Amino acid sequence: MIRSGLRRLFVIFAAIFALTGAVSVAIGALAHTNIARAVSVGFYAVGATVLVGSLVLGMRGPLRADWGDEQTGEMAARRAGLMARAIRRTTLAERVDARRTSLALFALGLALILIGAGFDPHRNAF
After folding, report:
1. pTM of the model
2. For labelling, which of 1, 76, 101, 119 has a CA lying 20 to 30 Å from the CA of 39?
């Protein structure tokens, strides 16, 4: 079970890296710029976006909207999708899942930025 989960995670990360690289190369070629610089800027931009997503997921409060299941009558039709029926506290499992998701997105964002720094022709590691 863990191996299949890690395989899916690897496929998702590989798809993000490949898609970011391909779009960056295409935009760099269309703009007639240095391809290595275009790839590095693409990874910087996607990495920063993922870090912002990590921040947003990590800062959610302990309350969630409870939308309810019974939707009958005119009042439910008017309120559908606009207002929650009630507010509830998050469960321990939801808090743990949110924390793990935020940490995974943070690690992915840092990895993307480091990959961008590796492609950047203006920056040298040594």
Report:
1. 0.77
2. 101
